[in-house]
Write a structure and sequence with these properties.
- It is built from three helices and four strands, in the order αβαβαββ.
- The chain is α+β, with helices and mostly antiparallel strands.
- Strands 1-2-4-3 form a four-stranded mixed beta sheet, with helices on both faces.
């Protein structure tokens, strides 16, 4: 993804609320399933990593991106933004 595209997605993500929280259990199969379903519906999502999470936000983002076939757009503090292109939404 090019820098301009990534910047546009970061700008869109500013107004989003986190739809999932990652807590003390870390990145579980249930979270991966929920994130995958959310990416099917919305392409661009924001997640929140709680202080109780055993992994850093960057590591959680990379794990989720790998498991869901998405891209990490941004990790700031405890917020993660993921994107997965859905060709059906662009017809």
């Amino acid at each position: 993804m090019k820098g301009k595209e990534r910047a546009a997605l970061r700008s869109q993500a500013n107004g989003l609320e986190a739809i999932q929280q990652i807590g003390h259990a870390g990145v579980t199969e249930e979270i991966i399933k929920n994130v995958d379903m959310a990416l099917e519906a919305r392409e661009l999502i924001k997640l929140s990593v709680l202080e109780t999470c055993p992994t850093q936000a960057k590591d959680a983002a990379e794990t989720l991106a790998g498991a869901t076939g998405s891209e990490v757009i941004q990790v700031i503090g405890r917020k993660i933004v993921l994107y997965r292109y859905n060709p059906e939404k662009h017809r």
